[in-house]
C-alpha cells in the first residue's frame, strides 16, 4: 500500500522576507525598549535581583575571582608579550562589559591563557618584522611606578613608516598597538557574526578538536615558560615549529641556567601543585578555594625585594607596573589590515569557548542563554577595551568553576572582581616591581594541569571512539608542532575529512530474518538469523551521493556475489559463440550441449535470488548521482530478471526518486517498487514468480 502524502502549501519566501524586513525596520517605543533590554540583559534581571538571597554569594565569589585574577593577569602578560598593566586593564574592562551584555549568570570572562598565547604569537611576529629585538630579558626600568615613566621608557625608538604611522614608537608602544588592533578586528568579526547569525560555525569545532587544540596550545605555553623557570636568556621563537626550536635553544643554553630562578621555580611549583591537589581533594569541606597564587606572589615578592635577588643573582623581575589609566586611543587602521587574517581564528576560538561554557553552566543551573547575544557580548568585550589598551578576552573554565563553587548567583560577582582589579590598578600595582618572572611562569604552568591531564584520557577516549581519538591526536600535534592557528585549521579540516570518509566507506550488510518475527538484522553481527530464500536484503548505512556511489555498487556486488554487468557481458559473449556455431551448421554448443540445453547453460548457478531488497532506512538523502545509481541497478538487475525493491525510504528520498524518474512518468509501478517495511518487500518478492 502507499500512504497518501499531505499537500504542502507553497511558501512565498519573498513575502515572508519583506514582512520580516518591515517588522525589523519599524520603530515604536515598545520595540525600542525591547531592543535595549535584549541588547543589555542587565536591564531585565537587575531590577529583579534578590539582594538578601544573592548578595553574599556574589560578593564572596567576586572577591575570590578578583584575588585570582590579579596574579593570573600579571602572569599571562608573559604569554601575550605585553606589560602586566595591559593584562590588568583587560581583566577590568571585560568584567564590566560582560556584566552589562552577557546572558550567562556564572561564566567568568577575562584574560585566558590560550587567547593570550594567540595574541602573543601575532605580537611577536609583527615585532620581528618591524625590526625589534624579541629578547624581553632586558634589565627592568627602575622608575617610580608612574605611568608616564613606564610608558615612555623602552627600547630604542623606531619609526613605523612600514605601516603608515609617522610617529616614533618604542617596542612596548608598537606591541600594544598590534594587540589592540588585533583585538578590535576580532571583536568586529564577532559582532558581524552576531548580526548575520553565523554562530553555526561553532558546530564545526567538535569536542575532540577543541580538546586537542587546548592541549597542543598548552604544550606551546609550557614550552614558552621554561626559559623563565630556569632563568636562561634565549630569543622568543617565531613561526612554525616554535616548540621544537625553543626546546633546541633551551638545551643549547642549559648551562647558563640561573640557580636562583631554578630553586625559586622548584619551590613555587611544589607549593602550588600541593595546594591545588589538597584543594581538589577537600573542596567539599572548603567554603572557598585557597588563594594560593596570591600567597605565593606576595611571599615571593617580599623575598625577592628584601633578598635583592635581581641585583645579587641577576634574577629577572617584572619591573615597574604603573598605576592609573592610560588615555584611550583608537587602534591604528593600518595595523588592523596587517592582522585582519590573524583575528579570524582568534574571534572564533574566543566565541566558541565563551558560548560552550555559557551553555554548559546554563544547563547545569536550569536557565537559558542566547547564543547570539553572547556573540555580541564577547565581541564588545573586545571592541570597547581595545580603545583602552586591552587585548582579547574569553570565558575561562577554571575561573568559572571557582566562581560557581564560591556561591556566584549573577554577574554582580564580575563587578566585584573588577573592583578588586581596579584597586590594584590604582594603588597596589607598583608593589609587584620585584616579583620574579619565574614565579609567574610557575603560576602559568600549574594552571595548565587540566589541559595536560587530557593525555590520561586518551586510552578511555580510544575505547569510546577511535576516529575522535585520531582527530584529537592530529589537532594536538599540529597545534603544538606547527602553530596554534594552523593546528585549529588542521583539526577542523581533518574532522570534516573523517566525516566524509565515514560516509564514503560506510557499513554495508546483508540482512537475515529474526526467526518467527518480521524484523531483519545484520547476518554477520547476530546469531540464529534465517536466510530468506530467493531474496537478498542489502543495507547501506549512509547517504547515497556522488562520493560513495562506487563503494555502494562494489559492496552490493560483493555481498550478493553477483555483478550484473559482468553477467550480462558473459551472456552476450556466450550468445555470440552460439550464433557462430549455428552458422557453421553445428547443432552442438561450445560446451558440448544441445540447443535445447542452452537455456540451462545461460542461467548461472551463482544467481540464487530473484529479488533484491535495498534497506534505505539509513539513507538520509540522495543526490542526482545517487538517484541515477539506483536507476542503474534497477535496469541492470531487471536484465537478469531480478526485481529491485526499495524499503523504508524517508519522504526526502522518495521525493528525490520521483523527481529523478525512478518510478516512471506516471508513478504507476510505484506500489510494486516501494515498501514501508522490509518485511512487506520480502512478502511481495515471495509472491512473485
UniProtKB/TrEMBL annotation:
PROSITE patterns: SLC26A, STAS. GO terms for molecular function: secondary active sulfate transmembrane transporter activity. It is found in: Apical cell membrane. The chain crosses the membrane at residues 54-78, 107-123, 174-196, 208-230, 250-274, 335-355, 376-398, 410-428, 472-501. Its main location: membrane. SUPFAM superfamilies: SpoIIaa-like (SSF52091). Residues 525-685 form the STAS domain. InterPro entries: S04_transporter_CS, SLC26A/SulP_dom, SLC26A/SulP_fam, STAS_dom, STAS_dom_sf. GO terms for cellular component: apical plasma membrane. It catalyses: sulfate(out) + 2 chloride(in) = sulfate(in) + 2 chloride(out); oxalate(out) + 2 chloride(in) = oxalate(in) + 2 chloride(out); oxalate(in) + sulfate(out) = oxalate(out) + sulfate(in); iodide(in) + chloride(out) = iodide(out) + chloride(in). It is a multi-pass membrane protein. Keywords: Cell membrane, Glycoprotein, Membrane, Phosphoprotein, Transmembrane, Transmembrane helix, Transport. Belongs to the SLC26A/SulP transporter (TC 2.A.53) family. PANTHER family: SULFATE TRANSPORTER (PTHR11814). This is Sulfate transporter. It comes from Motacilla alba (White wagtail). The lineage of its organism: Eukaryota, Metazoa, Chordata, Craniata, Vertebrata.
Amino acid at each position: 500500500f502507499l500512504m497518501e502524502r499531505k499537500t504542502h502549501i507553497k511558501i512565498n519566501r519573498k513575502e515572508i522576507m519583506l514582512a520580516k524586513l518591515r517588522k525589523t525596520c519599524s520603530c515604536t517605543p515598545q520595540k525600542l525598549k525591547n531592543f535595549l533590554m535584549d541588547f543589555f540583559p542587565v536591564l531585565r534581571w537587575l531590577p529583579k535581583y534578590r539582594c538578601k538571597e544573592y548578595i553574599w554569594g556574589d560578593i564572596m565569589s567576586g572577591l575570590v575571582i578578583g584575588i585570582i585574577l590579579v596574579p593570573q593577569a600579571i602572569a599571562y602578560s608573559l604569554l601575550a608579550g605585553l606589560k602586566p598593566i595591559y593584562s590588568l586593564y583587560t581583566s577590568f574592562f571585560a568584567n564590566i562589559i560582560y556584566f552589562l551584555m552577557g546572558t550567562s549568570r556564572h561564566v567568568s570572562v577575562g584574560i585566558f591563557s590560550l587567547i593570550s598565547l594567540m595574541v602573543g604569537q601575532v605580537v611577536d611576529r609583527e615585532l620581528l618584522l618591524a625590526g625589534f629585538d624579541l629578547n624581553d630579558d632586558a634589565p627592568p626600568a627602575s622608575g617610580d611606578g608612574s605611568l608616564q615613566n613606564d610608558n615612555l621608557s623602552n627600547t630604542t625608538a623606531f619609526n613605523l613608516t612600514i605601516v603608515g604611522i609617522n610617529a616614533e614608537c618604542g617596542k612596548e608602544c608598537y606591541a600594544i598597538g598590534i594587540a589592540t588592533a588585533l583585538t578590535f578586528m576580532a571583536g568586529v568579526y564577532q559582532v558581524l557574526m552576531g548580526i548575520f547569525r553565523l554562530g553555526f560555525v561553532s558546530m564545526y569545532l567538535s569536542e575532540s578538536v577543541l580538546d586537542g587544540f587546548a592541549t597542543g596550545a598548552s604544550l606551546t605555553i609550557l614550552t614558552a615558560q621554561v626559559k623563565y623557570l630556569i632563568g636562561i636568556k634565549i630569543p622568543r621563537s617565531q613561526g612554525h615549529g616554535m616548540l621544537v626550536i625553543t626546546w633546541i635553544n633551551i638545551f643549547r643554553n642549559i648551562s647558563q641556567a640561573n640557580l636562583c630562578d631554578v630553586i625559586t621555580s622548584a619551590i613555587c611549583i611544589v607549593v602550588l601543585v600541593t595546594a591545588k591537589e589538597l584543594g581538589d581533594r577537600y573542596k567539599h569541606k572548603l567554603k572557598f578555594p585557597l588563594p594560593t597564587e596570591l600567597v605565593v606572589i606576595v611571599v615571593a615578592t617580599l623575598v625577592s625585594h628584601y633578598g635583592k635577588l635581581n641585583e645579587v643573582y641577576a634574577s629577572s623581575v617584572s619591573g615597574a607596573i604603573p598605576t592609573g589609566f592610560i588615555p584611550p586611543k583608537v587602534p591604528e587602521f593600518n595595523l588592523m589590515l596587517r592582522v585582519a587574517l590573524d583575528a579570524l581564528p582568534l574571534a572564533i576560538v574566543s566565541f566558541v569557548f565563551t558560548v560552550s561554557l555559557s551553555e554548559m553552566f546554563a544547563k547545569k543551573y536550569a536557565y537559558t542563554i542566547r547564543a547570539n547575544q553572547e556573540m555580541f557580548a564577547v565581541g564588545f568585550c573586545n571592541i570597547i577595551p581595545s580603545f583602552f589598551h586591552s587585548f582579547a578576552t574569553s570565558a575561562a573554565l577554571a575561573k568559572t568553576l571557582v566562581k560557581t563553587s564560591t556561591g556566584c548567583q549573577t554577574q554582580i560577582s564580575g563587578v566585584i572582581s573588577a573592583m578588586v582589579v581596579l584597586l590594584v590598578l590604582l594603588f597596589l600595582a607598583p608593589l609587584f616591581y620585584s616579583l620574579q618572572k619565574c614565579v609567574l611562569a610557575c603560576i602559568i604552568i600549574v594552571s595548565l594541569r587540566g589541559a595536560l591531564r587530557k593525555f590520561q584520557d586518551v586510552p578511555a577516549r580510544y575505547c569510546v571512539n577511535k576516529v575522535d581519538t585520531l582527530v584529537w591526536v592530529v589537532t594536538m600535534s599540529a597545534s603544538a608542532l606547527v602553530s596554534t592557528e594552523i593546528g585549529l585549521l588542521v583539526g577542523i579540516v581533518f574532522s570534516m575529512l573523517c566525516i566524509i570518509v565515514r560516509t564514503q566507506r560506510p557499513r554495508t550488510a546483508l540482512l537475515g530474518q529474526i526467526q518467527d518475527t518480521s524484523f531483519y538484522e545484520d547476518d554477520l553481527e547476530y546469531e540464529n538469523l534465517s536466510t530468506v530464500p530467493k531474496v537478498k536484503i542489502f543495507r547501506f548505512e549512509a547517504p547515497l551521493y556522488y562520493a560513495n556511489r562506487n563503494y555502494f555498487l562494489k559492496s552490493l556486488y560483493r555481498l550478493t556475489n553477483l555483478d550484473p554487468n559482468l553477467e550480462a557481458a558473459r551472456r552476450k559473449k556466450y550468445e555470440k559463440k552460439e550464433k557462430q556455431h549455428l552458422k557453421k551448421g553445428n547443432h552442438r554448443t561450445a560446451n558440448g550441449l544441445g540447443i535445447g540445453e542452452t537455456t540451462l547453460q545461460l542461467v548461472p548457478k551463482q544467481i540464487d535470488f530473484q529479488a533484491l531488497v535495498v534497506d534505505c532506512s539509513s539513507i538520509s538523502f540522495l543526490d542526482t548521482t545517487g538517484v541515477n545509481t539506483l536507476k542503474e541497478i534497477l535496469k541492470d538487475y531487471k536484465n537478469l530478471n531480478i526485481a529491485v525493491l526499495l524499503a523504508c525510504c524517508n519522504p526526502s528520498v522518495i521525493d528525490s526518486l520521483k523527481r529523478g524518474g525512478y518510478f516512471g512518468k506516471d508513478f504507476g509501478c510505484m506500489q510494486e517498487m516501494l515498501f514501508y517495511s522490509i518485511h512487506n518487500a520480502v512478502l511481495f518478492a515471495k509472491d512473485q514468480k
